Amino acid sequence: MGPDVLPANSGTVLGRYRLIEPAGTGGTARVWRGRDLFAGDDVAVKIFAPGGEPAEAAARETWAAGRLRHPGLPPLLDRGRAAGRHCLVWEHINGVSAGELAAAGARLDDSSIARIAVQLASALWHAHARGISHGDVKPSNVLLDRSGAARLVDFGSCGRGGAAAETADVAGAAAVAGALADPRTLASPILRCLMQAAEAARARTARQFGQNMVSAARLSGIDPARLGYAAASPAGPRPRVREGRIRRPRRREAEGR
């Protein structure tokens, strides 16, 4: 049974977000596709079940969102409480999850696999450089928009980094890309790299994984520029972050109705 969260007829939360339809359910929360009645944009509204564990997951996601700004990580737009439950409002991604594609039997070509892997590596390197591990990298937590770009979501299980957690993240990224690979092309350099990263994750970092995927793309005759914004990002230096330079999400004190 999913979390005990607001029913479909609950209307508007936080005074401005109308719930349209459920978009997914996890262990501690349900996600809705909603509409920002002020801006007119679609949003993803995550409403947590009551209790201590869901409240902790909401706090972890909010903590991570305040420190991360990356094209592969949807931004947190708003937060507050709705009918006594924690509520987070995210940018809506118009697409499907890697898990849905894999379950439907979809298989992607090497170029698409490489692009997804490098984008996930870039997002993870950004998070790891700031002392944050995702903690639950899996196909259902990777959304692919209509251009095929990968977005990593759900930092409810995130932690404060560390070698074990970070290498588990990288192994998860390899598994996500591998789940969408065509088994008939397992001899390709792209998929050999994925398999090696999954089998020896303890020797991989997000930076190394991203670099390896770019190298494997070249070996496959794929122009690394086609992999998108993330192709060069994992190879960059660890960024220095100053407190106060990261945009904090808006906080809404009043409860929605």
Q: How would you sum up this structure, described in words?
A:
The structure is a single chain. Residues 229-249 and 251-257 have low confidence and may be disordered. By secondary structure, this protein is an alpha+beta fold. Helix 3 packs antiparallel against helix 6, helix 4 runs antiparallel to helix 5 and helix 5 (189-199) packs antiparallel against helix 6 (206-219). The strands form two sheets. It has a six-stranded antiparallel sheet with strand order 1-2-3-4-6-5, covered by helices on one side. Strands 7-8-9 form a three-stranded antiparallel sheet. The chain folds into two domains: 8-91, Phosphorylase Kinase, domain 1, CATH 3.30.200; 95-235, Transferase(Phosphotransferase) domain 1 (Transferase(Phosphotransferase), domain 1), CATH 1.10.510. It contains six helices and nine strands. The protein has helices spanning 52-65, 98-103, 110-129, 163-179, 189-199, 206-219; strands at 12-13, 17-25, 29-36, 42-48, 76-82, 85-91, 95-97, 142-145, 150-152.
Helix/strand layout:
Blueprint: E1 12-13, E2 17-25, E3 29-36, E4 42-48, H1 52-65, E5 76-82, E6 85-91, E7 95-97, H2 98-103, H3 110-129, E8 142-145, E9 150-152, H4 163-179, H5 189-199, H6 206-219
Antiparallel strand pairs: 1-2, 2-3, 3-4, 4-6, 5-6, 7-8, 8-9
Helix pairs in contact: 3-4, 3-6, 4-5, 5-6
